[in-house]
Amino acid sequence: MQLESILTCPRCNHQSDEQMPTDACQFLYICKGCGERLKPLAGDCCVFCSYGSVPCPPVQESGKGACCS
Question: At a CB cut-off of 8 Å and minimum separation 6, what does 37 contact?
């Protein structure tokens, strides 16, 4: 299981290597490049599933319906 993901801001394309929490979903992320507040896209459980290079740990382990249930 991968615990790091590269988040890419859809506004400015800034990329940041971030550690993913294993015990909670991250619903908000502030871009370190432009300050944009990133929230999950419709159908995604967290910012890592929407903007990350790797989905969150629960989704990696059990599939898309497993996160935050």
Answer: 28, 29, 30, 31
Which residues contact residue 19 at a Cβ distance below 8 angstroms, ignoring those fewer than 6 apart? Answer: 3, 4
State pLDDT tens for residues 3-62.
999 999 999 999 999 999 987 789 999 999 999 999 999 999 899 999 999 999 888 888
Sign of CA dihedral 11, 16, 21, 37: negative
Q: How many domains does the chain have?
A: 1
Q: What are the helix (H) ranges across 1-69?
A: 47-51, 57-62
Give the residue numbers spanning the domain of 25: 4-60
- 66 domain residue, yes or no: no
Residue 46 belongs to some domain of the structure = yes
